[in-house]
Amino acid sequence: MRPRHRALVAVSLAATVACVFSASVVAQSGRQRTAAKPAAAAPAHANDECLACHGDTSADRPVRPEVLAGSIHGQAGIACVDCHADVAVAEFPHASKLAPVNCASCHAEPAAKYDESVHAEARRAAPATSVAASCKDCHGTHDVRPSGDPESRTYHLNLPRTCGACHGNPEIIKRGGISIGNVVQQFQDSIHGRALAKGGLMVAPACTDCHGSHDVRRKSNAGSRVYRSNVPTTCGKCHEGVEHRYEDGIHGRAMHEGNASAPVCSTCHTAHQIQRVETDNWKLQVLRECGSCHAESIKTYRDTFHGQVTALGFVRTAACADCHGAHEVFPKSDPRSSVSPARIVSTCRKCHQGATPAFARYDPHADRHDKARNPALYYAARFMNSLLVFVFVFFGVHTTLWFGRSVHAKAVSRLPARRTGGNGAAEGAGKGDEGRGPDVGPPEKQDE
User: Fold this and answer.
1) What are the structural domain ranges in the chain?
2) 147-175 as b/e, with b when 16 or more CB fall inside 10 Å?
């Protein structure tokens, strides 16, 4: 054999030995991994196993298979044991009382927000007796559907009914100490509630638009959407144009400066009972709303023609917002104000088309007690008051004296009539027979 051939044979034998050695090493390694791997856990129960019992309507906790399959969890392929983890490898029949489902294991972010809410706060305060809402109260259990599904409890048009399960239930309101009462009924009668329920408008606000969904907080909490200083921003999500006008006005600036008495949206419009501003009831009611802060102004307004007419229930006369504006209220010294000297005539002409600068000098808040503001009115009022006092005193004295005289005259008129003689002197009684009165009949009868 040639040397070259012998070299090739040697290489081939070496390669064969290497392959055999490598195969033995791999096989040994596989046997070691197999030996180190623990025994596989028992497979978790499938939904069919659970529904074999719970699919029966007579079960203690029945679950309709079609409802579960139509839920968001069923469509996502989530198994029963993914939520009820303590049943995953338990022997059937399992224990009658299971551990509460932990929604946070999948929904960590909503759970974290809920943990800061008033609902979670109430449940922590009284874990055993609290009636505060939990996940299932709002979303359901086996019938959870996406919020865009019209059948979902959290569908926009269904939210008042979902929240009303607690906030419209007198028993829960009483047990939970909800001081505001049945807010669902108030909301249903409001402009927002009617637009939502009767108009079916998806743009109309529901509960979560103002209060939030998972992070509902008390209105006294600075992080709440309905905290006083946050109300304009919350309302501005829908009423953006109004928010801008309010922010520019004197009320908005005062609110941002920390003035606790400055009005916000809910101060004038309320929270759950918001009405249309075009109605007569609102136009008459707004006077009381403005007067709750501007007591002196509403008092002087009531003394004027405008105020007297509105007090009778007529709305076709100027009220606060007609002169001062509604949201864009500015001080009189601000040129933008509708009652500033530069704009007062045009403001009056909204009702009085022929108004002139002289006409606009009419004071809609004339105060007869303020001599500096209205000297002519002040002295005229004092004169009228003095005249009124004089008239009552004069005629009071006159009436008293006349009353005494009339009593005396009536007393005299009731005395018995007296007969007079020829000389004008009255003939006294007792000159005739004893016991006779002064009138004893005609003289001819006496002679007989």
Assistant:
1) 217-275, 287-366
2) eeeeebbbbbebbbebbbebbbbeeebee
